[in-house]
Amino acid sequence: MMGIWGRLFARERASDEPAARPLADASATPPVALMPEEQPHAALAGDELEECFYRFVLNQLVSTSGNTNPSREQALLHRLHELCDDDRFDVRSLPRMPAVLPQLMRAMRNDDLSGAQLADLIKRDPVLVGEVMRVTGSVTYRTAHPVGSLQHAVVLLGQIGLRHVVSSYAMKPILMASAGASGQMVGQRLWDHAERCAHAAVFLSKGQCDPFEAYLAGLVGYAGLGAVARVLDKELDGGPPASSPAFIAGCAALASHITLQAGLYWELPANVLDALAELTTLDQRGISLPLSRVLHAAQRLAMYQLLVEQGLVEADTGYADDPLAQLPSQLLARCQQDLQQNFTPS
């Protein structure tokens, strides 16, 4: 068992990844129109890609006639700042991380940790125990001999499985709940992106940063966007307005600050918090932290992949250029291909 947890978050080969999970049924609420009708699938890059993603998550339409209401948008942004800016957002309104999770995250980075020690830690959370046993009892992990103990289950889950259990148990409910009771669609879209972003972050992390921290940063990187969506939903009356790029950018900036506050509230590792902080104040001078570079590129690759799946971006345009991340374009292209193989619905 020595060293198994060192391999736990080593970059896995694409062939070892599980089959892509299908997107949730969005038939009740179809994707919003993101681009003008005469250019329904224009290739996007950089800031345009991010704007398209934010519009998709927040369900904010593009006005094809320029019929926006600047004064209303300015008033709404002012109200959002009053509620969310300068640490005014009450992070206690976000779901708490399970109490055992910070300890579990630290333990999973310990190369010398045995399966028995990790099982003892997981035992502190009965719900997590149930999730581990449920997953290892599924057809995917079924063996000739039934799983007889939690330690056996932990070893059986291995590299990919344990990571999926922990992320699904902890982060998926948080993201799904962050947008409030009426924001199930927003929460699902955030989770769909988080899965793809975490996958891409691990792929890009080799030789750059710790794979586990990259995975965790990928999961939480847009947690604040759900909170903005929740506040926005309460403040809007009569449905979502057609909104300008400046309005979307303002919402995105607020979301970034809330994500950092949430990370502190959730007691995330210091390197993850540093990366979130650097991307919160990102400018054209570039990115200095390796984890920040990986996260920035992973976020955009995941945006592109998700928008392709939704039919909002052409699948053959690609996104393999990120000068701020300073990662080789060939690496970004390979990561994009890996996302397509693992997440494109069959």
Descriptive notes:
The protein has a domain at 43-62 and 71-89 and 171-343. By secondary structure, the chain is an all-alpha fold. Helix 3 (70-84) crosses helix 10 and helix 5 packs across helix 7. The protein has 14 helices and no strands. The radius of gyration is 20 Å and the shape is globular. The longest helix is centred in the middle third of the chain and has 29 residues, at 150-178.
List the helices and strands and how they pair.
Layout: H1 4-8, H2 46-58, H3 70-84, H4 101-107, H5 115-122, H6 126-136, H7 150-178, H8 184-205, H9 211-220, H10 223-235, H11 245-265, H12 270-280, H13 290-309, H14 329-343
Helix pairs in contact: 2-13, 3-10, 3-11, 5-7, 6-7, 7-8, 7-10, 8-9, 8-13, 8-14, 9-12, 9-13, 10-11, 11-12, 12-13, 13-14
Measured as a percent range, the helix fraction is: 55-70%
* Global geometry: globular
Regions with pLDDT < 50 over 5+ consecutive residues?
1-43
Order of helices and strands: HHHHHHHHHHHHHH
Tell me the strand percentage band. Answer: under 5%
- Average pLDDT confidence is 77
Tally of individual helices: 14
Distance between the termini: 37 Å
Descriptors:
14 helices, mainly alpha, 0% strand
What would a concise description of this structure say?
With 346 residues, the protein is mainly alpha-helical.
